[in-house]
Design brief:
about 230 residues, alpha/beta, five-stranded mixed sheet
């Protein structure tokens, strides 16, 4: 069992404690390396809320976080602690999580963040997609959302998978309208159902070629009517 790693910074700090370099560096990276566009910024509510997004590239992090006026606490895999990537993750407040496991400590920290009134960001897929489209979502986002009752803000990026591979590719960050899941202690089939709803909300904001695992899912149209 890995040793617990504390949130950096602690969950009771406001989201504005993100590094003073986070926004300037994000802006520099996005505007030097991409043709960046934001859609739906007006859909971002006052905190607390749960921001859920797809994940195809490390460049998703600045693309999704830069437009958010409040900043967010996010998740980062413990495997990056002690690597050359760790300082980049620490530009934003993060909860270190053990990937592909039921890391209850990290989920408790996530709930604490939201209860403190701070926005939280989760990529429900749990890892970067290697197929250039959505992969199956995991239950962490639905678990946290149902236990806190906060609004879920679906978001997505596309074009980030082309950064450093093509000269200044067009990168879009898009935010949908918030929605809620039923409050309670969802588990089992209910957790799977809510996870599918979250992932289809993200798919509803993406061009069809990025739907991946969820391509053709009829829930996408239902969620499109809710989040767009």
């Amino acid at each position: 069992m890995p040793k617990p790693v504390p949130i950096s910074p602690p969950p009771d700090w406001p989201a504005t404690t993100e590094s003073r370099w986070a926004k300037p560096l994000s802006r520099l990276v996005l505007f030097l390396l991409t043709r960046y566009q934001v859609i739906g910024r007006e859909n971002i509510p006052d905190p607390p809320f749960l921001l859920v997004s797809n994940h195809m590239s490390f460049f998703d992090i600045p693309a999704v976080n830069y437009p958010a006026p409040h900043g967010t606490v996010g998740f980062a895999a413990r495997k990056y602690i002690g690597t050359k990537y760790e300082p980049l993750f620490r530009l934003y407040p993060v909860i270190w999580i053990e990937q592909f496991s039921a890391d209850r400590g990290a989920l408790r920290d996530a709930i604490t963040v939201l209860e403190a009134g701070v926005p939280l960001g989760i990529a429900p897929e749990g890892t970067r997609s290697k197929v250039g489209a959505l992969i199956q979502g995991r239950g962490g986002a639905a678990f946290v959302a149902t236990r806190t009752g906060v609004p879920i803000v679906p978001a997505c990026t596309w074009g980030t998978e082309k950064v450093l591979k093509h000269p200044r590719p067009k990168v879009i960050a898009r935010y949908g309208k918030p929605f809620h899941l039923p409050a309670g202690r969802a588990k089992g089939d209910a957790l799977e159902e809510y996870t599918e709803r979250i992932m289809c909300a993200i798919a509803a904001l993406l061009p069809e070629k990025y739907h991946g695992y969820y391509a053709g899912n009829p829930l996408i149209e239902e969620m499109r009517r809710i989040v767009t």
